[in-house]
Description:
By secondary structure, the protein is of the alpha/beta class.
Amino acid sequence: MAKPLRDLIVVLPGITGSVLRADGRDVWALSPQAVGSWVFSRGDSLQSLALTGGDPGDVVADRLMPTAHMVPGLVKIDGYSRLVRLVRDTFDTVPGGNFIEFPYDWRLDNRVAARKLAQTVERALYDWRQRTGNPGAKAVYLAHSMGGLVARYHLEVLEGWRDCRALVTFGTPYRGSLDALDYLANGYKKAFVNLTAVMRSFPSVHQLLPIYRALRVGDDYVRVAETGPLDGVDPVLAADALAFHREIEAKVTEHQDNDDYRREGYTIVPVVGTRQPTSQSGVLAGGRVIVGKELPSWIDPLLADGDGTVPRASAIPIELSDAYRDTFVPERHGSLQCNAAVLNDLRGRLEQSQVRGLAAIRGPGESPTAAERPAIALDLDDLYLPGEPVEIRAELVNAPATLPLRARVEPVEPSNGPQPRTVHLTAGAALELTGLPPGVYRVTVDTAQGGPAAPAPVHDIFAVAGADHDLG
């Protein structure tokens, strides 16, 4: 039986997570079939997404992307249908009333989306309070990746905190991601996926750059926005991106001196992906940026992992660095918001948030026991060329190296692809799969031996390109 939902729940996707439309047609709505075919061509419809002087043109955000989508080399996300379904199955939701899916134009400065979010929530909360006679109703935000930055700007800089009960973030890069630097500086290594120039025009991608000293120049680590010219990185957009983050930090500091904010402010629950090989730093040498997994020397070695896209430290809000409120899960970035264990935990938190008379939801810290919990680290590429073997590599963490592993590989849309395949892995050794037709695939790696002490499964997606693409 659906439970009462007294508050307003808002779901925010990450970058690329909203369908974009122009002139009555979708210009960004990548189905798994499209990812395996026309998206890898030089299609005019995708090139038209480029921004000139920040002008969005006639493009509007229409809806959330329900299924898997990606920009190879930058981001891949396993959709939002399971997150949305969790809310609808748990609560008595009224679309447009107490439940909002918030698509936004993810190409633009995140300040633009935050202002639109503020207007949308203010209007929806007023209507919901009038409709229910409940003046104490507030908003609960469920934000994946960059969506958490949009929410934070709204809550802090635009003062939306007064009407917020909680913000749950899944892999939000509060301090940036090295993948964004790699993509902007170097493009994608399989260059026929020709979205690099388009993405370089987006303020939002620059707002994903690391804001801490992660780029080594000579013997020192510096911030990307403070290095001077870098090929592929717009210096104006990079400087403004850093200013965007600093605006949020300054407001947080200001608010912490506000008695009302300390007493009635919102709770943040960061869901942090761990145990996955994650880029941690860059080196500027010979005018070229080389991104790698070496942790900057000034950062604690215990932070040398992440979700494959966002470093562990970056997924934790700066002011919560010593709060131990995070939820840690050994999962890849694009699957955090649909991980079964995360969703089960989220359901309990959301239910608890609707119980009046109790404290706001809280996230537990990672206890020493949890820190030593067995896990699986998964590593594979985003995109494979026609005839190229799909290479899957998995490592066991805090578990015997002899523990048997298996990988289940299945098309994201089963009706339009081959039958699922289950293959056995050896920890630390690469497994090569051949013969997969073009399309997008989901891979799940777990242990062949179950039980309460077994590592949790880990998930990711990858694409196989068609054979008829222009590789020039």
